[in-house]
Description:
The protein is α+β, with helices and mostly antiparallel strands. It has one domain. 50% of the residues lie in helices and 17% in strands. It is built from five helices and six strands. The strands form two sheets. A four-stranded antiparallel sheet has the order 1-2-5-6, covered by helices on one side. A two-stranded antiparallel sheet has the order 3-4. Strand 1 (3-8) and strand 2 (11-16) form a beta hairpin. Helix 2 crosses helix 5. The longest helix has 25 residues, at 90-114. The N and C termini lie far apart (39 Å). Keywords: Plasmid.
Amino acid sequence: MKEYVKKINDSTYTVTSFTAMHGLKIAQKLTKIISAIEVRDQGINFSSAVDKLIDLDSDLSLTLELLSQALADGVVIERENFNKIFDDKLGELLELLIFIVEVNFKDFFYTAQAQGSKITQAQVAA
């Protein structure tokens, strides 16, 4: 597992990549979201994927699962401290989620696209 650091405004976020099994479990959930978004010629639009995640994840379970390997200024992000960390920082949350999806799943979805997977060939509903 690798660690990635991203500075967003005044906060430093450290993201540890998921193990293969954990990542695959999350990828299975994300495919339902990715398949419902626009796929551009150059690949997956991860910003749209995260926007769709926010729309569909009403109980925040998948969002919290994505954040489970992330630290905000050295503090583990959990349901209990979520508000404290992200109050008045929803833009940072969105940027962090996009970063987490890119770090952990970029190769998965690009490979699926290259192989002609149904995941990446879904049509966007009008």
